[in-house]
Design goal:
Chain lengths: ~100, ~375, ~230
């Protein structure tokens, strides 16, 4: 087979696979929407404010309702202990609004 | 049209022959490039899917959560605040919430323990999340001891376990009755962890929040909008590790492109001269260089994106696990629903394929215009 | 028939500078079609330059070149390349095969940008290699060919687009006597196929060969003698 034909075959196959991936995504979105609705229902009935992503520390477990100084724990110069603290940003939204209120 | 296609095929034939001359180097290049795309696409898929799922799941989160600040920290809120909040116009219901963190020294995991509005079971019963079940090896009807604030162990009867589909919201939850909660933590009857409000009209939330602060100066309201915004900006590009990954990826791309962009070797120049001498035009040379760049970058892009999709949605981003897990013992199983943003994918395409292809063409511009005559005399 | 006419051709390199070089100095000559012409002269005589001018590889500093009725010297680059591709096939002194690709691919290279049907091109290339007795080397990498095989591959390459004119620069420079004679046999066959051949050489085996129709002697960029 010509080299260029091999390349085109590769392009065609991988494009098809990519297309299949998008289709799979769409299919999964539809198939699992009951699951998403159920989780939304849990959030509503249990009055949850956060997803359970990082259970290392309280400000990573409940970032929406964490106070701003929680990462500092014991001391203002206390550096970040937990890896997930570097993944999520401090809650800027709250900071802005609360500054207005102070 | 047919001859245009044939021409491209011919030139690609030559480009591939040319690339396979330095097989080892080009295969390494392909692998590195694919790895880079894989990394970026994985981060992109993961964060986007998580954000979408968060937005959908938390859309019915409490409209206002009121917390109390004391000495710069959030502290339990007095029961008497409930009456004050009830009087605010537009507030339809007010409820004190009890929730806290429980550190299980047996396995070293943190749980979130809370009292739901309607706990279906009685005192001594507990509902646990699937993550807790996994970590503690506890199933329905098992007995779990929890250590109270005064050192006394209290045995709980597991009445229910949350389904595995609820991992993302309830993985680490322990639901208990109010008396049990207060017994465990020693919280007095006139304190709650915080207070949640329901309002009649969502548009009035900001106004109500302002009123809350006026009425209760040490209270801080958190609105649903702020909760949702927390998750919109999760894994923001400014966050620590994401910056590290992006910087690394950009540097890697520069290094990979440097080899191309820093100009042609004497061999490559000679080859272009020969092609010009046997009748290739300048535009043909540039077309060849375009394909040289495009073959590598297109192949890597497609492979990288496909692998990233499999990585994130079929293996739950297994390679990111060490980073996401950190020190936590209880780690939810991220079987994310695949939400893909095609706009993001095409942006990634333009950011990865175009610069490399351009880096391959531009340095060849000068050499491509070489006078074939000079080949005669060399 | 397409006669190649060069009128008052001058080629100056590095014009205006102190190391200015006049390679071809006021040369007027007509090269007959379907004949074999040899440009003879020592190195530095300007024969290579004259070859490249005749073959549209370079433009003269002054003077005009005609292919039949058509004036080539004033054509824009694109048209010149088109003419070069369709009318001329080159055999370089250094062969100039592309390393790292096969013999067959080297032969097919000049036709790649034309976008013709691939299988026909491949067949034609194989036929040419067979014609010169190196059909068995079709899939060998170019750098593994011997001097004689490389020479013949270069010749086959020059013929792939079926040009009417073949131009060869010092074709026997890297060949021994036997291979040089074989090359001249090939030249004879080209003549039988009605091709015009122009060779630059200072090798007596070339300019004294029986197949040669005309010898033009050059020295210091000028024509010294025209022997038939």
């Amino acid at each position: 087979m010509r080299k260029s034909s091999l390349f085109f075959v590769y392009l065609a196959v991988s494009s098809l696979l990519l297309e299949a991936a998008f289709t799979h995504a769409q299919y999964q979105q539809n198939r699992r929407s009951p699951e998403l609705r159920e989780n939304a229902r849990l959030v509503r009935t249990l009055e949850l404010t956060d997803l359970c992503l990082f259970t290392e520390a309280r400000y990573t477990r409940n970032p929406s309702v964490a106070d701003f100084y929680a990462p500092f724990q014991d001391h203002p110069c206390s550096l970040e202990h937990f890896p997930s603290g570097s993944l999520i940003m401090p809650n800027r939204g709250n900071a802005e609004n609360h500054a207005l209120m102070d | 049209m047919h001859s245009w296609i044939e021409k491209q095929r011919n030139i690609i034939d030559f480009t591939l022959s040319s690339l396979s001359r330095r097989k080892g180097k080009n295969i390494a290049l392909l692998l590195v490039y694919t790895l880079l795309v894989f990394l970026l696409a994985s981060v992109m898929f993961f964060t986007h899917a998580l954000k979408r799922e968060a937005a959908l799941t938390l859309r019915d989160a409490p409209e206002i959560v009121v917390q109390r600040i004391s000495e710069g920290r959030y502290e339990p809120i007095p029961r008497k605040y409930i009456a004050v909040l009830n009087k605010i116009k537009g507030v339809t219901s007010v409820r004190g919430r009890l929730w806290g963190y429980y550190y299980d020294s047996v396995v070293g995991a943190n749980y979130t323990i809370m009292v739901p509005e309607n706990f279906p079971y009685k005192s001594g019963d507990i509902t646990i999340g699937s993550g807790v079940s996994r970590v503690r090896l506890a199933v329905k009807d098992d007995m779990i001891p929890l250590r109270a604030y005064d050192g006394i162990s209290i045995i709980f009867h597991v009445r229910d376990v949350f389904s595995s589909e609820s991992e993302l919201v309830a993985s680490d939850l322990l639901l208990v009755s109010e008396p049990d909660y207060r017994r465990l933590f020693g919280t007095s009857k006139d304190l709650f962890t915080d207070i949640t409000l329901k309002v009649r009209n969502a548009k009035e939330i900001p106004t109500i929040a302002e009123k809350i602060v006026l009425l209760l100066p040490d209270a801080r309201p958190i609105t649903k909008r702020e909760i949702l915004r927390t998750y919109e900006s999760i894994f923001d590009w400014r966050s620590g590790i994401i910056v590290a990954i992006l910087t690394g990826a950009v540097l890697a791309f520069i290094i990979v492109s440097w080899d191309k962009a820093s100009g042609l070797s004497a061999d490559e120049k000679k080859e272009i001269g020969i092609l010009k001498a046997v009748g290739w035009e300048t535009s043909d040379i540039l077309l060849m260089k375009f394909w040289e760049g495009a073959v590598i970058s297109l192949s890597s892009f497609l492979a990288g994106v496909l692998l990233a999709y499999v990585h994130v949605f079929f293996t739950s981003a297994i390679l990111f696990e060490p980073v996401l897990k950190g020190w936590s013992v209880l780690y939810p199983e991220f079987r994310l629903v695949p939400f893909i943003d095609p706009y993001q994918v095409s942006t990634l395409f333009f950011l990865t394929v175009v610069p490399y292809t351009v880096a391959t063409i531009i340095p060849s511009w000068h050499a491509a215009t070489i006078d074939p005559d000079s080949v005669m005399r060399s | 028939m397409m006669m190649l006419e060069l009128k008052n051709i001058r080629k100056v390199f590095n014009q205006g500078k102190s190391y200015e070089l006049v390679a071809v100095d006021e040369v007027t000559v007509s090269l007959e079609a379907k004949k074999i012409t040899v440009l003879k002269g020592p190195s530095g005589s300007g024969k290579t330059t004259l070859l490249s001018l005749a073959g549209c590889m370079a433009r003269p500093t002054s003077g005009r070149i005609f292919l039949g009725d058509r004036e080539l010297s004033s054509l824009p680059e694109r048209f010149l390349t088109e003419i070069r591709r369709t009318h001329f096939g080159f055999i370089f002194q250094q062969f100039n095969l592309v390393k790292g690709i096969s013999t067959l691919e080297n032969v097919m290279l000049p036709a790649y940008p034309l976008g013709g049907p691939h299988s026909a091109l491949k067949k034609h290339a194989h036929e040419l290699l067979e014609l010169f007795g190196i059909g068995g080397r079709a899939s060998s990498k170019a750098e593994w060919l011997s001097g004689g095989e490389a020479q013949r591959t270069a010749t086959a390459r020059a013929l792939i687009n079926d040009p009417p004119v073949i131009i060869a620069d010092e074709p026997t420079a890297h060949l021994d006597t036997k291979l040089s004679r074989e090359f001249m046999d090939i030249v004879g066959r080209l003549k039988e196929q009605q091709k015009t051949v122009i060779i630059a050489s200072h090798d007596p085996l070339v300019y004294e060969a029986a197949v040669i129709d005309r010898v033009i002697t050059m020295r210091d960029g000028k024509i010294e003698g025209l022997d038939v």
